[in-house]
Design a protein that fits this description.
This protein is of the alpha+beta class. Helices cover 48% and strands 10% of the residues. A hairpin with a 2-residue loop joins strand 6 and strand 7. It binds protoporphyrin IX containing FE.
Length: 459
């Protein structure tokens, strides 16, 4: 029994290669070593698993677990009590607690204000004037998650919190900042002038705002409110103990972070890809306009071509390159190979989504492939799987569909950025795109409070 082979490059250089260009790192080593290879991309030895067969075996093997300790890198931002850092049995208990707002009636009830938030953002766009698409999508998805989590729609408290969160998230998303996530050795707080000291100060500012919100809600409870904070405040274990303020803060921060960046990036790719491919645009518009003015979220959710467009976007540029880490608790057989106990594994969503045996011409954006056949949950897994499958999956899909439909039916956009084609690029722990992708509205939207859209031609 031995670990699979992998690159001989020294560990630290491998980590730097992974940080600089994760796609090149995965593609090169996958080509050289196949669906299982041992690498140093997590800052420790870990086996990258790719392909539907490997992912299925990894996700379903009873001796392969998903311990929270493997997600230590997220601790400085999300905190030790975040769902992502919990292990069994606490992890399952917390998941059950967090699930209800992301399913069923509650989920559909978000439809109305997701559309209103989108329309409010669109009302800020000026015909003929370029806007940064990713920033606009982030503005929408952050407002959506802030409403779901805190019930806040507008007002000074919301604006202050939103600004503070964006500043904090950006500090470890771009350029050198993302190194702080993967290189704990850089995390030295030498006061407000040191880079990590500044990040920690911003973190404390955000935390103070979140704690103030928690305090305010403890002091003035309102059982009528249906936001996630209310749900967590009323939760208690068998002995009647509720969550502490620190536990609440960590869970809220987890949802705020996990719940907007991924969706904003996917929406940006979707808008780019749809407008790059006129036949896709035409077909999608024909489907959307056939729905009539009402835009019922449930009906929209089921539209086959819109679903195919969203799925193809998530296949081609899934914001999560890897699943969270998994670990073998005993010697296991994976893809016919004996793997020792205590081995760390990570599923490559990116490589699996580009397997030419499953997706012919995988580089091509072709939503039709999702209409021609069904893919197994291991062939297509943008939201991961097993015990850690994304809890925001249904919300993210609803958001993508509603926001896209609202924008496409409300305004005609054109590409403005000079650099084409748009290239994928690391952003923090996720895959996003080069910055500076802009579009401009050709026609303006008369924003209205009703669910009807009136489009006017701008001359
Ligand atoms: C396009 C949007 C999204 C994508 C592609 C995505 C993807 C993922 C992936 C790949 C995982 C890891 C699953 C695994 O290891 O098996 C995950 C976990 C998670 N996601 Fe998402 N996600 C998205 C949106 C959201 C939203 C909207 C929320 C919350 C509102 C959310 C909250 C979470 C949380 C809390 C976890 C950790 C689950 C756990 O530890 O049990 N995500 N997501």
């Amino acid at each position: 029994m031995s670990l699979p082979s992998g690159p001989k490059t020294p560990p630290f250089r491998q980590l730097l290669q992974w940080l600089k260009d994760p796609l090149d790192y995965m593609e090169r080593h996958h080509q050289a070593f196949g669906d299982l290879f041992l690498g140093y991309f997590l800052g420790r030895p870990a086996v990258m698993v790719s392909g539907a067969q490997g992912l299925q075996e990894m996700m379903t093997h009873p001796q392969i677990t998903a311990p929270g300790e493997l997600n230590e890198l997220a601790r400085p931002l999300l905190g030790a009590n975040s769902l992502t850092l919990l292990s069994e049995p606490e992890h399952q208990t917390r998941r059950k607690l967090l699930m209800p707002p992301f399913h069923g009636e509650r989920l559909w009830s978000y439809g109305q204000w997701i559309r209103e938030i989108t329309e409010a953002e669109m009302a800020r766009w000026t015909p003929g004037e370029a806007f940064e698409v990713r920033n606009a999508m982030q503005e929408i998805t952050l407002r959506v998650i802030l409403k779901a989590v805190f019930g806040l729609r507008d007002g000074a408290r919301l604006e202050t919190l939103k600004k503070s969160l964006v500043e904090r998230f950006e500090m470890t998303a771009k350029g050198f900042g993302s190194s702080f996530i993967f290189l704990p050795i850089l995390r030295r707080d030498w006061g407000p002038w040191s880079p990590w000291g500044r990040i920690m100060q911003k973190q404390r500012d955000c935390d103070a705002l979140i704690y103030a919100e928690i305090q305010e809600r403890r002091t003035n409870p309102d059982p009528e409110r249906i936001d996630i904070l209310n749900l967590l405040l009323s939760a208690a274990d068998e002995e009647g103990n509720g969550l502490t303020d620190v536990e609440l803060r960590d869970e809220l921060m987890t949802l705020l972070f996990a719940g907007h960046e991924t969706t904003a990036t996917s929406l940006t790719w979707a808008l780019y890809l749809i407008h790059q491919n006129p036949p896709v645009y035409e077909k999608l518009m024909a489907e959307l306009t056939s729905l009539g003015a009402g835009l019922d979220p449930l009906e929209l959710y089921k539209l086959p071509y819109l679903t195919a467009v969203c799925n193809e976007t998530l296949r081609l540029y899934c914001p999560a390159l890897l699943t969270f880490g998994r670990q073998t608790e005993a010697p296991v057989s994976l893809l016919g190979r004996e793997i020792p106990a205590g081995t760390v594994l990570a599923g490559s969503i990116y490589l699996t989504h580009r397997d030419p045996g499953v997706y012919p011409q995988p580089e091509q954006f072709r939503p039709e492939r999702f209409l021609e056949r069904n893919f197994s949950p291991y062939e297509f897994m943008p939201f991961g799987g097993g015990s850690r499958r994304c809890i925001g999956m249904a919300l993210a899909q609803l958001e993508m569909k509603l926001i896209l439909a609202t924008i496409l039916l409300g305004v005609k956009l054109e590409h403005r950025s000079p650099a084409q084609p748009l290239k994928p690029q690391r952003r923090g722990a996720l895959l996003a795109m080069e910055s500076g992708f802009t579009m401009a509205p050709l026609r303006g939207l008369k924003a209205s409070a009703s669910s009807e859209y009136s489009v006017t031609t701008v001359t």
